[in-house]
Amino acid sequence: MRIDVVTIFPDYLAALDLSLVGKARRRGLLDLRVHDLREWTTDRHRTVDDTPFGGGAGMVMRPDVWGRALDEVLGDGADAEPDEAPGATLILPTPSGEVFTQRHAEELASAEQLVFACGRYEGIDARVAEHYRSTGLDVRELSIGDYVLNGGEVAALVMIEAIGRLVPGMVGNPESLVEESHGAAGLLEYPVYTKPPRWQDLEIPEVLLSGHHARIERWRRDQALRRTAARRPEMIAALDGEALDKHDAAL
Ligand code: SAM
Fold it and tell me: InterPro entries from the xrefs (predicted)?
């Protein structure tokens, strides 16, 4: 997968050299490129913003600078085989976007190229999203939650990590992705424990030492249901009744 990030703070993305994403980059699983938006400015001050039409506080990022940058970055990545579909997706992180979830991560993990346009100030001129949508490009305005950050860089890092770990080969043991929170079961994950078996006078649940796989599986399912009901009742309410077995329904 190819991922491009366009930002006025390329150094913010240094974290992409670390951990699993960094490893995937070095192994060639992720072709990740970070671009400085100011490379596409034309004045000697390398201006990327201007005052908002209609007045008001703050500055807005100019569509002409973004247009030059995105035309080049998107054009540059359009070199995949035609039968490899699904093509490029332009992601505009914004607090006014649809909230990014694991479903988006799963869907976007099969994209051929993802381009993140990181806003700053009061955001990017709205015509940028409108223009690229009108060209037929898949354009997503996505929020990482109901709060406002200073820029789109942290949001891009969050989405790249969530999407990247679903790219085949990225996580060493794909089994570890199966029972995770927000997975196919629609539940939060059960509590997990490791050695030592006793710590700070706290013991691990006895069933986990039983070696009885069916009992362990039942206990984990019950814990996942209880935890989800307590912390995220709306997730339980959204479950399809058929997704609950008889024993679950009796809980
Ligand atoms: N004026 C904008 C508003 O109220 O919707 C907020 C602009 S914010 C200060 C600057 C940039 O940070 C945005 O253009 C976006 O790229 C990024 N950003 C801020 N909060 C975000 C969030 N919750 N999710 C994704 N991106 C966010």
Answer: Alpha/beta_knot_MTases, tRNA_m1G_MeTrfase_C_sf, tRNA_m1G_MeTrfase_TrmD, tRNA_m1G_MTases_N, tRNA_MeTrfase_TRMD/TRM10
Q: Is 88 left (phi over 0), alpha (psi -120 to 50) or beta?
A: beta
Q: Is the CB of 164 under 6 A from ligand 1?
A: no
Fold of 179-249: Trp Operon Repressor; Chain A (1.10.1270)
Q: How far is the CA of 145 from the centre of ligand 1 (A)?
A: 10
93 C-beta closer than 6 A to ligand 1 = yes
Q: What ipTM goes with this model?
A: 0.99
Gap from CA of 146 to ligand 1 centroid (Å): 10
Percent pLDDT > 70 in the chain is 94
Confidence (pTM): 0.93
Please tell me the number of Cα atoms within 13 Å of 153 on its side-chain side: 18
What's the pLDDT tens digit per position in 174-211? Answer: 777 778 999 989 999 999 999 999 999 999 999 999 99
Give start-end residues of each CATH 3.40.1280.10 domain in the chain.
2-164
Distances (CA, A) of 128 to 55, 62, 137, 154: 20, 9, 12, 21
Does 50 sit in the ligand 1 pocket, CB within 6 Å? no
For a mutational test of ligand 1's pocket, the pick from 60, 62, 148, 150, i.e. the residue with the most ligand atoms closer than 8 A to its C-beta, is 148
